[in-house]
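Q: Hi! First time asking for a complex rather than a single chain. Here are the components, and I think there are two in total. Is that enough to go on?
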Amino acid sequence: MNRWATWLWLAFLFSIPVWMTNQYYLYILINAGIFIIAAMSLNLLLGYTGQLSLGHVAFFGIGAYASALVSLGFDLEITDSYTFVFAPRPVWVGLLAGILVAGFFGWLVGRISFKIRGAYFVIVTISFAEVVRLVALNWIDLTEGPMALNNIPPLTLGIPGLWELTFWRKVPNYYLVLVTCILSYVVIARLVRSRLGRAMIALRENEPLAASVGIDVTRSLVLAAVVSAAMAGAAGGLYTHTIRIIDPDVFLFIYTVTMVIMVITGGKGTLAGPIVGGLIFGILPEVLREVASPEVQWVMYGLIMIAIVFFLPDGIVPALASWWRDRFGAGGGGAESQSEPGPGPEASGTVTDTMGERA
Amino acid sequence: MTREIAAGETVLAVENLGVRFGGLVALAGISFEVRAGEVASLIGPNGAGKTTAFNAITGFLTPSEGAIRYRDSRIEGLRPNEIADLGVVRTFQKTSVFAASSVFDNLLIGLHRRGGARLWEILLALPRVRAEEARLRAEAEEILDFVGLSARAGEPGGALPYGEQRLLEVAVALAARPSLLLLDEPVSGMNPVETASFMAMLGKIRARGITILLVEHDMRMVMGVSDRVVVLNQGAIIAEGTPEEIQANPEVIRAYLGHGADRRAVGRA
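A: Yes, that's all I need. Here is the structure of the assembled complex.
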């Protein structure tokens, strides 16, 4: 039954470009999909290890810039007599480079800051994102600074001489983002249900106990940071090659906040949470744009956000899961709570209580 | 992995262990040994330094001086997980479980050391990883059965009644496959029936070849299960010996009850 639901849902997602001919709607979905990948990556840190990265957009932006630069090529004047020339490479090499470079920075930030966790980690990540933004803004030789990198090529896939597809249009890009979304979901799902993922959850719940049974605290957290950063880098790469222009504004704090909101409203520490949150806050601003003036839009956006956080403090997915359990008994919900260790029992209790009060 | 250790051989040697917090001396150079296969107890009045000694042995704090040897390794100053890797695993004085995870998942987390799947293997979902998961699940079931919590497997750890949470703690520690198990006041807060069944379980753990170092206030339990008792008072060892010797030791009686107390009082304390 659960498996059928998954296949149906996937079939629906794959069918969307067939019946949705409005290209603007597809564009919205592509954008939401990219942010969902980023939100899923943030969820690994925030939801499963319990570490709040408030500079997550840095990894997204690093992936975007790395991928753009590798596929555009660049030259760097090292000394007066020597200039390093990097020839343009195919876009898939760029995407891969974006993932690797972002993953490397995830490792670096993790290494440095997980010795001093909690609030310090938050501060280090915020500062890191700001430093990266300033570098992107001022290293004009490399990044063109505020003039932006233009004409970034879209992805081309194919077998040389036989068949080739360049992702110019919305439909192939939609499928590209969808497939990456599914891959990211599978990576996170497999990871959190494994021995390594259990170690991350253990750290969130009770660090001294985790250490006492042999879990290497720093190693687990750094691993989570690397996977998370690499995935955010992949999202950034997709962003850069679908939008095809990138400037330092990609590092703005507001994007990190958007990701955090997606994770928290959807339900941190659940597999489906960032998807639900990402769909809502990826699509909502575009819907509001059609019905209200910009000022009213932002107010409504904020009100909806506050309402979700206030009435469903654990997020939408845990609330729905516990509602489902209450309504249809433990049968269906049991399997889910086994596989999704995120929502705590007391936590879901609180949700039910709160909902009960309002009802 | 390591060489066989004969019963009675010294496995843990604490030598001149000192811990100071600023000017406060928590442990003033204590030395004691734990021998393979025995149940040793560390007792003493509140604030004597028992938990401090536990924390130093298991890497939760770095000693100011002295050496701690486990089998052939120096372990002072190592991190807790490195010490756990050598087979020294502890429980905590305050109840400590993974509260939001199911009892079964608590065990799976405890079995961390028993698995070896790497990230890329997990992401590719190799058959090796699945086989390992199945093995870990079987081990988790076996340990749950051992401590008698099988019926609770699906419940969140934090939702268990107090006595069962203490059992779960021991189960999680056992999952890490200790050769030396340090229990910090495992029966505090248990009723006499629970304490009695816990003592029986301690016997079964010992029968598995696990050496036990116990910190406990329940004197009936200490005197009932221990082979040797080490008495701490104000950061120093004041007596060491069999339960009978300790109960007869005038200095111990004085430390616990002040002057003028008789030996039977220690037995009851």
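A: The interface with chain A takes residues 58-60, 79-81, 84-85, 89-92, 96-102, 105, 108-110, 112-113, 115, 117, 119, 122-123, 125, 129, 132-133, 136, 154, 156, 158-159, 172-173, 175-176 of chain B (CB under 8 Å). Let me know if you'd like any chain examined more closely.
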